[in-house]
Design a protein that fits this description.
With 307 residues, the chain is mostly helical. It has a single domain, classed as MetI-like (MetI-like fold). Helices cover 74% and strands 3% of the residues.
Length: 307
């Protein structure tokens, strides 16, 4: 019996330890390398080493002026706020489009659900760059989407909302940027919502109808609260990567819609300032992870109180 429990504990430790090992190798180690570069002095080609030995004396040189510069320069926190804004609207649009889609999938016949799930995953079979370039062709002048917007007068609506700069000009605008990111990250919202909604106990809705609740009231009082975990998971899967998105802003956003990913790329490759780019990336990661960790802590405490 003791051998069995010892084997069980070893297996349990392995199951728990493998994800932590994965995070250590592919997140923590690269993050520490990035943090090390952010406090180093930039050399001719690459950052200098933090530690140096001269005359038998070990000297440790840490440069924190990059973080001070980030806090004092308005460009960087304005860029970060712009990234937050675009990520927020992208997440909101993905939720507004993805929730009805996931709800329909979860309520469809079991025989149809695999086909609907395949349709959601089908875009992943095509190259990410090809899909973004396709939108570039659709939104440029004489593109199908651009012609449809001009014919229906929707470009005037977008102009009034400040999403485009001129009538018929859909490319290199906040509209094209958010549209491209919404299209790209929509499956990341649908899949967690579908997984959550498909497991919901439908007897709760029947009980609500028996008690006199309308379908709309039952949806808001039962379905939406029970799908909160899927909403949070989908929102995190969309919001976090869109903050640091680089390819879509570069191809669809244009030079006027700066985001953090574009600024990091410019500091790395155009200015050849690795420490400043690394400090910007470290700051962005911490600004995302710290609120997320606090939120998860309160969520865990709330679940413990419910028990």
């Amino acid at each position: 019996m003791k051998r069995f429990w010892a084997w069980l504990l070893r297996g349990r430790t392995a199951v728990i330890g493998l994800p932590y090992l994965w995070l250590l190798l592919f997140f923590m180690v690269p993050f520490l390398v990035l943090a090390q570069i952010s406090v180093a002095e930039m050399g001719t080609v690459r950052p200098n080493s933090l530690a140096s030995i001269k005359d038998g004396v070990l000297t440790l040189s840490l440069k924190f002026s990059n973080y001070v510069f980030l806090a004092s320069d308005a460009l960087y926190y304005k860029t970060y706020l712009a990234s937050l804004k675009y990520a927020f609207w992208t997440t909101l649009l993905c939720l507004a489009i993805g929730y009805p889609f996931a709800y329909f999938m979860a309520r469809a016949k079991p025989s149809l659900q695999p086909a609907l799930l395949m349709l959601v995953m089908l875009p992943f079979w095509t190259s990410f760059l090809l899909r973004v370039y396709a939108w570039k062709g659709l939104l440029t002048t004489d593109g199908w989407v651009a012609d449809a917007f001009i014919a229906t007068g929707l470009d005037q609506v977008l102009l009034a909302l400040g999403l485009i700069s001129a009538p018929g000009k859909l490319m290199n605008t906040p509209f094209s940027l958010v549209l491209g990111m919404t299209y790209t990250y929509l499956p990341f919202m649908i899949l967690p919502l579908y997984g959550n909604l498909s497991k919901m106990d439908l007897r709760l809705l029947e009980a609500a109808q028996d008690l006199g609740a309308s379908p709309w009231v039952a949806f808001w009082k039962i379905t939406v609260p029970l799908s909160k975990a899927g909403i949070i998971a989908g929102s995190m899967l969309v919001f976090i990567p869109t903050i640091g998105e680089y390819v879509i802003p570069e191809l669809l956003g244009g030079p006027e819609t700066l985001m953090t990913g574009s600024v990091v790329w410019s500091e790395f490759f155009s200015n050849n300032d690795w420490p400043l780019a690394s400090s910007l990336a470290v700051t962005m990661i911490l600004l995302i992870l710290v609120p997320l960790a606090i939120f998860n802590k309160y969520q865990a405490e709330a679940q413990e109180r419910r028990k």
